[in-house]
Design brief:
168 residues; alpha/beta; Rossmann fold; four-stranded parallel beta sheet; two-stranded antiparallel sheet; 8 strands; 36% helix
């Protein structure tokens, strides 16, 4: 079995290393300590993945994620996951509106909080399976399906989820 390898130019590696150092320094101005967690967050970001932060309340998980979004100058949204949260609450919904020019009624899509670059899914373990499935579709496919229509998400799209182990 042979494995294909891709050679990465040294300049790209240098740029990545520089960006990592600058981001870590900027986040470190707000978050004291937790260097390992910050490193893992940045690995997820640079690999175009997502991240789950688990910890007891009070460890600055939410502050760390909002700080990362500010450092990157990216749009940010926070979704507080609750037992009554519905998929449409995070994906968005079609709303029936009347066209003032023609008088006809048309569906107009109102995007939900998933339509940002950095999304904080706070306390993800508290929400129903259908809502988790909608979030997982967004994370995997980088799109959401509302009705029969597929809507592409922002690029880059990065979900950082938190959960408190005592509420599992």
């Amino acid at each position: 079995m042979s494995e294909a390898t891709t050679e990465i130019p040294a300049e790209s590696i240098d740029l990545l290393h520089t960006a990592h150092g600058q981001l870590k320094e900027q986040i470190g101005r707000v978050i004291v300590g937790q260097e390992d967690v910050i490193d893992q967050l940045l690995v997820s970001l640079f690999s175009r993945g997502h991240c789950l932060l688990e910890g007891v309340p009070g460890l600055a998980k939410t502050l760390m994620i909002s700080t990362l979004a500010r450092c990157l100058s990216m749009s940010f949204s926070r979704i507080q996951f609750t037992p009554d949260l519905m998929p449409a609450d995070i994906t968005g919904t079609d709303v029936l509106q009347e066209n003032r020019d023609t008088g006809q009624r048309e569906f107009h899509f109102i995007p939900g909080p998933l339509f940002h670059n950095v999304v904080l899914a706070d306390e993800i373990n508290r929400t129903p399976p259908k809502t988790q499935a909608a979030l997982l579709e967004a994370m995997q496919e980088r799109q959401v399906t509302v009705g029969q229509t597929i809507h592409k998400l922002s690029d880059p799209f990065f979900v950082l989820a938190t959960q408190n182990p005592i509420e599992q």
